[in-house]
Every structure is written in C-alpha cells, then in structure tokens.
Design brief:
Strands 1, 2, 3, 4, 5, 6 and 7 form a seven-stranded mixed β-sheet that branches. The protein contains six helices and seven strands; from the N terminus they run E-H-E-H-E-E-H-H-E-H-E-E-H. Strand 5, helix 5 and strand 6 form a beta-alpha-beta unit. 36% of the residues lie in helices and 20% in strands. Bound molecules: flavin mononucleotide. Flavin mononucleotide (FMN) binds next to helix 1, strand 3 and strand 5.
Length: 196
C-alpha cells in the first residue's frame, strides 16, 4: 500500500488524423485516471517536443497510433524518431509502457503496429505491459461491439474504426478495452512504486 500522498504520472502519447485514435486515447486516459492520485497527460504526438519534461518525469508512457499501411502512422513515427536523443541517454529506462491502435479492418495488420510500439518501448529500456484480458466472447455474426477485447488482442488494446470519418466513434467495447488498458497501467505503476 502506498502512502496516500504518493502521486503517479502517466502520459498518453498518440497520433490521430481522423479522430478515432484520439477517442481511444481519451478512453485510455479515463482509465489511467481512475486510481486516486494519478495525474494523466494526454499529448498529441505532433506536440511531444513541447512536453519532453513531462514525458521524462512520467512513471508510465502509453503509446497510441492508428494503423496506416500496416504500420504506425507517419505522425507517430516522427515522434518515435524525435525521441532518439532521449534513447541515447536512456531517459525512459524502467518506465512502464503500453500501447493501442485502431484500423479500418477487423485485422488490418494492427498486430504489426502493437509490435512496433512494444519494440520502440524496448529500445528505450521500458517495461511493456500487456492488455491482460482474455479474448471477448465471439458472437455468431461477429458484431459483438459491446464486448471487452472483442478483437482478441494480447499485446495491447485494439479497436476497429469503421472508416475515416471522425463522427463514427469506435464501438463501446473497444473504448472500454482502451479504458481497461489505462487502468491496468496505472495499477501496475502503483504496484511497482510500492516495491521501491
Ligand atoms: C493512409 C491510411 C492507411 C491506412 N491503412 C490501413 C491498414 O493498413 N489497415 C487497416 O485496417 N486500415 C487502414 N486504414 C484505416 C485507418 O486505420 C482507420 O481509418 C483509423 O480509424 C484511422 O485512425 P485515426 O482516425 O486516428 O486517424 C488506413 C487509413 C489511412 C488514411
């Protein structure tokens, strides 16, 4: 048990051209804010250069990118490349990390993106937190949009966003899955800090 005055800091860094990853990032942030005394920073990848101090001070970083052409988006990759100076100094070593992505297809190579994010975290010496959910129950028509982890991911949170239109929100189950990931990371931070 941590002393009640202990605070934790979590930053969610995301890129989103059409708003779907943004909605997931907000859900991750809601989950991360659930444990008391957690401070959550929602940071657009394009603006990360203005927030290096926040990222360096955070206990955990949660990365979110849409799946574009089977890979992280160029906007997120730009952030990854700009973090190279911090990699040199291993400033994020031993921080917790996790990730999420969304794409238009049920599959669409989302796993490739989560693998990229996990590899990126590993290059920084971070400790990757998995989603920690068994696959949601499949319904016969595959339209189980309310179910947690309906896409059966393990490495991080996945969502299917029907098209590029920002008005179309990812299904509730996918948003809930993202929220679950944020809460899990915050709980893990508490667990790690209580052992320090
Ligand atoms: C350039 C581009 C490439 C895309 N590549 C894929 C892809 O490889 N697989 C897929 O399922 N969807 C793909 N999509 C669809 C997006 O992943 C989907 O619309 C996602 O919700 C966009 O996220 P955003 O709203 O945060 O930008 C692509 C969309 C764009 C614009």
């Amino acid at each position: 048990m941590l002393p009640s005055f202990t605070t934790i800091s979590i930053a969610v860094v995301y890129h989103s051209a059409f708003g779907h990853t943004k909605k997931l990032a907000e859900a991750v942030a809601r989950g991360a804010a659930q444990p008391v005394n957690s401070h959550v920073h929602l940071i657009r990848a394009e603006e990360a250069s203005e927030h290096w101090d926040t990222l360096n001070a955070a206990d955990a970083l949660i990365f979110g990118s849409p799946t574009y052409m089977g890979a992280v988006s160029a906007g997120f990759k730009d952030f990854m490349d700009k973090s190279g100076n911090l990699w040199l100094k291993q400033r994020w070593r031993d921080k917790l990390a996790a990730g999420f992505t969304t794409s238009g297809s049920y599959n669409g190579d989302k796993l490739a993106v989560l693998q990229q994010l996990a590899g990126f975290a590993a290059q920084h010496g971070m400790i990757w937190i998995s989603l920690g959910l068994k696959p949601g129950d499949a319904e016969e028509d595959g339209a189980n949009t309310h179910v947690l982890n309906r896409l059966g991911s393990y490495l991080g949170a996945m969502a299917r966003s029907v098209n590029d239109s920002p008005e179309v929100t990812p299904p509730q189950g996918d948003l809930d899955t993202a929220e679950f990931l944020g809460k899990r990371v915050a709980e893990m931070v508490y667990r790690f800090k209580s052992k320090e």
